[in-house]
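Tokens for chain A. Residues wanted.
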């Protein structure tokens, strides 16, 4: 028998399970889950299917199709996505109550434990990991530039003003810097410095 439905007609109901419950908007800690090497992406797909929250750090690079090295012309290369920490997935603290179900997933091992060392990250440490992964995904020529920000203190290590400390005032589109060199009560503005001529002051 062929049933005919019309637009807007209610044809059934889906029961809503409260199995997962409400979770906090931001986890208080991130735990490291070991998975089989090379299976990170497969485990993350299974997580999506089963409604499990997790994060796998990945780095995207563009390689030359012929040589396999970093492509000088990214638009002509091939995108490669690889795990930044192979075999490790970050699990938010609110998923720990389902750890037995998570361990039952194929290719999942267990939470990382190294003796008495702390094997979880605070939210600010996790943000640092995200920043590192984002920087790692940049072409080598842009990695140092990505860490440079306006009003950051630097030390000049090469050129006429080597040995002086300065403050970054401007970064142009080519990565060249305009800095304010501090010298007692007065200072001088210097333009055209490159990233190889400076060191960041932490």
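Reply:
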């Amino acid at each position: 028998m062929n049933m005919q439905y019309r637009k807007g007609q209610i044809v059934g109901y889906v029961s809503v399970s409260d199995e997962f419950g409400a979770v906090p908007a931001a986890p208080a800690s991130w735990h490291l889950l070991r998975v089989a090497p090379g299976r990170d992406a497969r485990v993350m797909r299974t997580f999506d299917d089963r409604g499990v929250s997790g994060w796998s750090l990945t780095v995207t690079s563009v390689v030359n199709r012929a040589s396999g090295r970093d492509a000088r012309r990214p638009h002509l290369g091939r995108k490669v996505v690889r795990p930044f920490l192979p075999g490790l997935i970050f699990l938010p603290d609110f998923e720990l109550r389902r750890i037995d179900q998570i361990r039952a997933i194929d290719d999942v091992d267990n939470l990382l434990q190294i003796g008495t060392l702390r094997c979880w990250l605070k939210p600010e440490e996790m943000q640092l990991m995200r920043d590192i992964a984002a920087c790692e995904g940049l072409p080598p020529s842009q990695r140092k530039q990505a860490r440079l920000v306006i009003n950051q203190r630097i030390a000049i290590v090469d050129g006429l003003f080597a040995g002086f400390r300065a403050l970054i005032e401007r970064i142009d589109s080519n990565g060249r810097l305009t800095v304010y060199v501090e010298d007692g009560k007065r200072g001088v503005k210097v333009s055209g410095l490159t990233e190889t001529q400076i060191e960041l002051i932490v």
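The mean pLDDT is 81. The domain at 30-145 is CATH 3.30.70 (Alpha-Beta Plaits).
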